[in-house]
Amino acid sequence: MISAHSEVDSKIMLEQAQGVKQFLTFFMADEEYGVDILTVQEIRSWEEITEIPNAPDYLKGVINLRGTIVPILDLRLRFGLSAIDYGPLTVVIVVKVYFEQNSKIMGVVVDAVSDVYSIAEHDAKTVPNFTDSENSEFVAGLVNVGEKMVALLDLKKTMDI
Amino acid sequence: MSIDLSQFFEVFFEESFEGLDAMEAELLNLVPGEEDLETINTIFRAAHSIKGGSGTFGFNSVSDFTHVLETLLDQIREGKRELTAEHVNLLLKAVDCLRALLSALQAEQDPNLEDAIALRIKFEEILGVNQSGATKVAAEKQPAQPEFNTYQIDFKPHHHLFKTGNEPLYMISELAELGDLETLAFHNELPDITDLSADDCFLSWRFFLNTVKDESAIREIFEWVEDDADISITLCGGLFAEQQQATIEEPAVENIESSPEVAEVAEVVAVNPSKKAATAKVTTPAAAESTSIRVGIDKVDSLINMVGELVITQAMLSQIGEQEITETTIASLQEGLAQLAHNTRDLQESVMRIRMLPISFVFSRFPRLVRDISQKLNKQVELKLLGEQTELDKTVMEKISDPMVHLVRNSLDHGLETVEQRIAAGKDPVGKVTLNAFHQGGNIVIEIMDDGQGLNTEKIKKKAIANGLVTEADELDADEINELIFMPGFSTADEVSDISGRGVGMDVVRRNIQSLNGSVEVSSAAGVGSTFTIRLPLTLAILDGQLVRVAKHTYIIPLISIVESLQIDISKVSRVGKDLDVLRLRDEYIPILRLYTIFNHQGAIETLDKTLLVVVESDNQKIGLLVDDLLSQQQVVIKSLEANYQKVDGVSGATILGDGRVSLIVDISGLIKLSGLRKPGSQELIIESKASLEAS
Amino acid sequence: MKRILAVDDSASMRQMVGFTLKKAGFDVTEAKDGSEALNIAKQQGFDAVISDVNMPVMDGITLIRELRTLPNYKFTPLLMLTTESGMDKKVEGKAAGATGWIVKPFNPEQLLAVLKKVIR
Q1: Is the peptide bond before C105 cis (omega within 30 degrees of 0)?
Q2: Shortest Cα distance from B642 to chain A (angstroms)?
Q3: Residues of A in contact with B644 (CB under 8 A)
Q4: 3-state secondary structure of B150
Q5: Residue C9 lies in a domain
Q6: ipTM for the whole complex
């Protein structure tokens, strides 16, 4: 489902019509994850952040995004993965998340950005119920791109903090 | 062509509320028997405009109600009826009622019609008519076959017809649209060319119209010229009564004249809406805060000027940027930057001024309030309004109104004496209540003064002792005793009266004002009167803040809540209970809150001796906040954390500092809650085992 | 393009009338009372004037009376907006030189339909 968006190029429109969406993918702990490219506002490098007192550990703090206060989540910590030091490849993907009542601009810290894929919706498989994986709840579906497997994120669940 | 009328609603509501305000103000000026025509006219026009607009925009509940008002006012205006005090009271009630109806409609809710109908019946009693419910619309199916009839129409305009602006040609084409038209024109009245006046009409016509419409449709075309022409319409008989399938439903309006039935209908009307009202009431609040403001053209002009200057400065700076860097360019760069700072500040002030409205918007509701209450209390009161043009932010204005109403009610109820008491005390029998507003620094100050009996310190102290707020042993001066009235759960009224003291105490007033980053104080002298002083920031969008450092974090403490900042003298600190340090400051005991503990930050200064303490006050409670360093003081623009994140305990919002970093604004009362510190009744401090305190 | 002067002290009515007429292809000028309207009417020509009756400063009937005395407005359709209760106002208006009246409340379609009687 695509929410109202300001600029959509005709290629995306065409693909949408055929049930194909574009996904921005990124790496985290050698796994590749994808988010609907239409939700992505911008990609920024990691910068100094203002901590929020008594917030959960995955909430790194807030930044000033051209005058609005935007919270930043560490996706590794959110998924219960081991934390790593932020390096030059560490980026913040700023996304717009649509909740039932409103939408929020939020950022996620990921290891590195990978690629953009066009993925047909019907290619996505539902997530098998991993008994050992806590973060399967944040994944909306799995797809194969060539040899690789990409986990498509359920942003609404991931960002519901 | 279809036009969406809803685009005009907002303007309609705005002007209607303005009209009601004007009506109310004029009504309060009215003295029955001495009324002047222009005042009545102004009131009439306001009612008339509301009626016209509401009818046009489909708000029938409003137009029906306004109709009776208008009729009464019209009769008074025409001198057919004498204005009485009862009329004025009723009209004032009608203003309230209309306000409620319009507010409900503006919020897109079903209005509560109960009051309106009751009031309308009263108006109708005065007018001696019973219209409400007197007309019943019954849909009656007419035997459907539309019949074609032929009418002969003779139309002989008087000579002066053109001078009325009417045009026979257009009427003829209107006529042609009703059906098949045959036209005969007569020019036998045309005079000789020498006598012919081009301004006059000498032609006349005879038409044969074959139409399904009835005579009234034809009459309507000639409605405007009935007195300017000889018109006769006669039916010649149905020529082609063709089979037409269309059915016409026409509502027939039937006048019911027997009065018992009228009452019954009125009752039914009155019962139904009350059910609606019950459901509507639940969802009322969201309405009041309006979303648009009117801005004076001068404010916009000054803004445009500022932007003009900014553009010039920008051009100057970019020119410098293209030059080689020499000492001269650096000097002019500095000059340019100073200019830019100046422009920015001016621009900020101008933009803020756009949201500023004169406080008369709030003041204007008080004459009515004072009139009503003084009537009820049987006291004589003169209300004086000063500084009505003092401006403040619209959002602040919307929120200060209720606390002010409370304070004014209090002054009237508890402050001012009855006429007898005043005479006995040798005072003017007419009590005075003064509202005064003025700017002081970056604040607006609102004073509510009365020349009544003053606060009864004895009574207050007794009550405070009874409530366990203070002990007999406490030595308090008059000001300290007066302060007690702002304590939670305090009310001195022996009986809870209708006017004030219905469960809402002064503590609520103070809390509401504090939530606007403001303060309220009282000063009073027995027998002379009391003055409540409200101080408010001019705007909620900007706050004067003290920047402080805790570990590596910068926080902002609202300047208005800071009492003082000091270095702790460890010899004055004592430990209470398990882990609370208390500083003795003069004759007060100030609990020390360690911000780093509450906010869970590592690396802050933990020793107390010589460390900085910011003493702040909130909800009548002084606490000390332990900080590592005091940084600068500056105005900050308040940004919401909730827009993209959520409410954070102990933090009221965020701002962006000069270097682009985000800094959080400390919420003092939230902090007290977070720390588990409760307000002591006396010097005893109660600590709840709050996780955040024990965690460290 | 035919030019119409719309006079009403109520901004919402003025906007509604103005908007409706503009959409129907008229060139509309607005005035907020009789006196303002009279000044405008003296400086510019109009093909029709539509005026409210009850207005501050100068009411609609006075405006119509004044306009009719001006040579340029001798034959101009001058319409007044009136409420159903104002029957005597209609008579008064006619006597002052009004061409006709439009009864409030009205909707945009009714306004245009009535206008067709005097201006096309």
Answers
A1: yes
A2: 9
A3: 68-71, 104-106
A4: strand
A5: yes
A6: 0.84
